[in-house]
Design goal:
Length: 155
């Protein structure tokens, strides 16, 4: 049998517990364990504490130190906040979709207008190539004479 396979007799299924009486702790904070002991003993989490999970403990300590009325108000506030965020996110998604729809519509309109202008210019070029007088082309195309003259220069 290899070293990577544990024997049933080698496994300790009973957890070990350490009882640390916080009353004898002298409030001297040197490491994470001391931060936890200080907080448990004094029911306070100092702002400079950085132990993993200690900030969450501070929030819980603040909550349990509130009156029942304050706790209900606190919970109501966070429920309302979550609801407001949900409404805002829903409305933001709705506004984004509406904005995209309007943007596509405007883009299509601009494309159609650009296409009409390009088609009109192409028609003017063909009429000029066909030998029609510039004044007649301007009248038929319903374009200012100076624009038709500019198109003629570009030919």
């Amino acid at each position: 049998m290899g070293y990577d396979v544990a024997q049933k007799s080698d496994i300790n299924i009973f957890p070990e517990y350490f009882i640390i009486p916080v009353s004898i702790f002298n409030d001297e904070v040197k490491d994470y364990l001391d931060e936890w002991l200080y907080s448990l003993k004094n029911h306070e989490v100092k702002s400079e504490f950085t132990a993993p999970g200690i900030k969450e403990m501070g929030e819980k300590l603040e909550f349990v130190s509130m009156t029942e009325k304050q706790q209900r108000a606190y919970q109501k506030y966070y429920e309302d906040l979550a609801s407001d965020r949900g409404v805002l996110e829903f409305n933001a998604e709705k506004a984004k979709a509406e904005g995209e729809k309007i943007g596509l519509q405007k883009g299509e309109q601009i494309g159609l207008q650009k296409g009409k202008i390009e088609g009109k210019i192409e028609t003017v070029k063909n009429m000029l190539k066909g030998g029609l007088a510039v004044e007649d082309v301007a009248q038929f195309a319903q374009m200012p004479l100076d624009q038709v003259l500019q198109i003629k220069k570009e030919l």
